[in-house]
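Fill-in record for HPP family protein.
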Amino acid sequence: MDKRSITNSHHFVSLLAGLGAMLCITALSSLDRLAPSSVWLMAPFGATMVILFGLPESPLAQPRNILAGHLLTTLIGLAMAALVGVTPWSMGLAVGLAVSVMLLTSTTHPPAGANPLVVMLAGEHWDFLLMPVAAGALVIIAFGVIYHRFISRQPYPKRWF
């Protein structure tokens, strides 16, 4: 391959990743219209798009990491807020615990590291764990599988769980 075709291929893959991210976030935000009382989006999902569509072969982009990473870190944020409240120390502790737990359980998903802060700063409650976190992560994974198999033609997932 010459330098020009490599550059063109890189541009194409980059644009394809952006398209996947755009379509997935559009689909999630459109679900708000079907279930107006439910929230389907949270900021860390935007960062999940970078990994899922830009680096689909990465261990960080695999379904186990996306789902468990988001669930565990949200659970830590909720528990910390309920047990000790929201302070600079508790937010720092929650993020530190989230990082440690993801690494210890081999469920590292960097965007999920923000979840304790989202939960604690927004004053979220336990139902946030199911909606948008669990439901949104499952939709993202399903969308990623379909998108990569039929549009980007990249092998995804590399492993399920």
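KEY FINDING: The mean pLDDT is 93.
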